[in-house]
Amino acid sequence: MNYETATRIIEFLEQYDKHFSELRTFLSSKQEKVVGDDLVWLLDSLTEEQKLVMRGNSMEAKRLTLLSELGYNDYTSDMLYEEFPENLKGKFKLYINSMNDSIDFIKRTNEGILDLVERKLEVQAELVKDANLTGSDTYDNSGTKIHKISGDIIGTV
What we know:
By secondary structure, the protein is mainly α.
């Protein structure tokens, strides 16, 4: 691989790494907001999250196109590393390691957020179930209030 080709790849990796950094920052904020039950922020952030996902998809498509144009479409990062000029190998490895760390962080954070939301929903379901068993009022699908005592419906209002 010549210096110009390696430089093009590194310039792209710099942009891609920056995207992953932005995504990490966003997901850290999202995790904090889920823990704090900040539903307003979570709803308001959906557009930002969608934008980040779409940008990531676009960046991946550009990566595949760039590597294909340069004749390295079937290369892994390790294979590319071996082809890089010696004086650029360190920079290449730096970006690859940074992106791999970000990808691991993103996967773990998304799994943690999903687990947290599932546990919160389970708690809410139990609270609703308990409220219905103790005689609290509830509503049917049409919004009509249903009075319950010990789980038996005794009438609607």
